[in-house]
Amino acid sequence: MSDKLIICGAGGLGSEVKMLAEDVGGWELVGFLDDTLPAGSVAHGLPILGGGSYIEDFSVGVSVVIAVGSPQARESIHERMSRSGRVSFPKLIHPLACVAREAVLENGVCVFPFTLISSGAHIGQCAHLYNNVSVAHQAKIGAYSLVAPLAAIAGNVSIGRRVWIGAGASIKQGTAIGDDAVIGLGSAVINDIPANLTAAGNPARGI
After folding, report:
1. First-residue to last-residue Cα distance in the chain
2. Residue 24: enclosing H or E segment and its boundaries?
3. How many helices (H) and strands (E) does the chain have?
4. What's the pLDDT at 1?
5. Is the bond into 71 cis (omega within 30 degrees of 0)?
6. Using CA atoms, how far apart are residues 162 and 158, in angstroms rounded to an integer?
7. Whole-prediction pTM value?
8. How is 186-201 classified by DSSP, letter by letter?
9. What is the rounded radius of gyration, in angstroms, for the C-alpha atoms of the chain?
């Protein structure tokens, strides 16, 4: 029998996470949680169960995947739901992703098709790695971070918590990116990026 899974967030990303869960298999998709849509309505073929507080009504454990793009919002939702002690956050790793046996992926991580995670890499809780991302050896990606499609992260890179890496960005080996930084799409990061900075360009500079 399949385990039940609820998706938090019924926007466009929610539809992608739904497809990811279907491709992973082994889950019975119960529905979405979304504060912006009325309970009982339907999104992407699944019912809207209610808002985020819906989980508080559960007397038994439930599995949730958070399909919200904003790293800061994803952290807030994760922390709020975790307080109940009844919510688990499974990893969803697409069967067409390639993840080294020596890589460490924490709970709640989503890995989309054709992404490569190499030996010794560490992916923090509830981070999202989208299609065709490359994460090289011993790279570290902090909790709640988002890595958009076609980004390339070289070996021994250190990425902090709640970081947004734009589509097609390249991160040079050994560089560090601080918490809450944003890297623009197509950027080339060749020097360390401090926390809370938005950087873009080739080479990436603060904007």
Report:
1. 51
2. helix 12-24
3. 2, 25
4. 39
5. no
6. 13
7. 0.94
8. T-EE-S-B-TT-EEET
9. 17
pLDDT at 69 over 50: yes
What DSSP letter does each residue of 51-71 carry, written as one string? Answer: SGGGGGG-SS-EEEEE--S-H
What one-letter code names the amino acid at 28? E
Q: Sheet holding 98-99: strands in order across?
A: 98-99, 116-117, 134-135, 152-153, 170-171, 188-189
- And the tokens for 139? 């790279």
Q: How far, in Å, are 53, 119, 122, 187, 206 from residue 98 at the CA level?
A: 35, 11, 14, 24, 33
Q: What is the pLDDT of residues 90-122, one digit of tens each?
A: 999 999 999 999 999 999 999 999 999 999 999
Handedness of CA 1, 7, 58, 161 (dihedral sign): positive
- Nearest CA to 151 among 102, 114, 106, 194? 114
HSE-CB for 127 with a 13 A CA cutoff: 26
**Sole residue written with tokens 């939702």:** 77
Q: Over 50: is that where the pLDDT of 133 sits? A: yes
Q: Residue 180 in contact with residue 162, Cβ under 8 Å?
A: yes
Q: How many CB atoms lie within 10 A of CB 20?
A: 22
Token couple for 148: 């958009």
Residue 60: the pLDDT is: 64
Tokens standing for residue 48: 């809207």
